[in-house]
Specification:
This protein is an alpha/beta fold. Helix content is about 30%, strand content about 25%. The protein is globular, with a radius of gyration of 20 Å. Belongs to the carbon-nitrogen hydrolase superfamily. NIT1/NIT2 family.
């Protein structure tokens, strides 16, 4: 099974109005659909670009930005649902900081199907920035989603740096992992990249990573953006030796490429190593705890 994917390296803009943002999203997604994309992936914190529409008194303050942008959730959901339905694609709409009943916000990625229906995955572990904000709380459920090309999982940025989330999704049948990301330092981008490659290796499934790009000095959340859109697979027979199926350069844009899920599955079954199937070997009773051992005299 092959699927053509479009992975965004989204340059953060400064839209005066929601309609300006919507027009750009529609234009760029139409362009990748014209190239045959069946699945499109946008980056984490994408919705925070909309803080600019409320003016400097709002976009210069994180808490004001969160509250203001949250009022646009119905329009956001409608926009991406309509685009997914119009083009008949699966669409991961970056992430949206959704207000909860207790006044906190959860970092939520909405996945739309070709009928415009949606489901979501929330971020499970918070970065230092998110903890320091004193307004963002983690989600508490790990999910997988059925698509025409197989079951998929979502790890939002920092979540991909933890092995057990993706492992649980893989064990639940995920054949593809989607990672919307936003990092503000080269070190942060490297951590996400290493996490993506590690999850691809451990679970022997493709990992798609979308990123924010460019500098936005006006934003309290998106001032500096690093990283590159990429598709990672396990290094094995029939797959790239370095584990990078495709990667964008430093310029913003879209990475459009074919992902051969069948070839990845074949390498998982008949490759040089079986990391995914050998995983339970780590859980043998004698290996679950490291024992301090003294040196013996020779």
């Amino acid at each position: 099974m092959q699927v053509k994917v479009a992975v965004g390296q989204w340059r953060i803009g400064a839209p005066p109005h929601f309609d300006d943002f919507a027009a750009r999203v529609e234009r760029e997604l139409a362009a990748v659909v014209a190239q045959g994309a069946q699945l499109a992936l946008l980056p984490e914190y994408l919705a925070m670009e909309l803080a600019y529409t409320f003016g400097p008194q709002v976009y210069g303050d994180l808490h004001s930005s969160l509250a203001a942008v949250n009022t646009l959730y119905p329009q956001w959901r409608a926009l991406f649902g309509e685009i997914a339905q119009r083009h008949g694609i699966y669409l991961l709409a970056g992430s949206f900081l959704r207000r909860q009943d207790d006044g906190s916000y959860r970092n939520r990625s909405l996945l739309f199907d070709p009928q415009g229906r949606h489901a979501w995955q929330e971020k499970l572990r918070l970065t230092g920035f998110e903890k320091d904000a004193k307004a963002i709380t983690p989600g508490n459920a790990l999910k997988v989603f059925d698509t025409e090309f197989g079951r998929v999982g979502v790890n939002i940025c920092y979540d991909v740096e933890f092995p057990l989330f993706a492992r649980a999704q893989s064990e639940a049948g995920a054949v593809l992992l989607l990672v919307p990301s936003c990092t503000d330092t080269p070190a942060g981008a490297a951590r996400v990249r290493i996490g993506c490659q590690a999850r691809a290796l451990e679970n022997q499934i493709p990992v798609l990573c979308a990123v924010t790009a460019g500098d936005s000095d006006w934003s309290a959340a998106l001032d500096t953006n690093t990283g590159r859109a990429a598709i990672y697979v396990q290094p094995d027979r029939g797959l790239p030796d370095g584990g990078v199926l495709a990667e964008l350069d430093a310029e913003a844009g879209w990475l459009v490429a074919e992902v051969d899920i069948a070839a990845v599955k074949a390498a998982r079954s008949n490759g040089q190593v079986g990391v995914a199937t050998d995983w339970p070997g780590q859980l043998l009773p004698g290996l679950q705890r490291a024992r301090v051992t003294s040196f013996e005299r020779t």
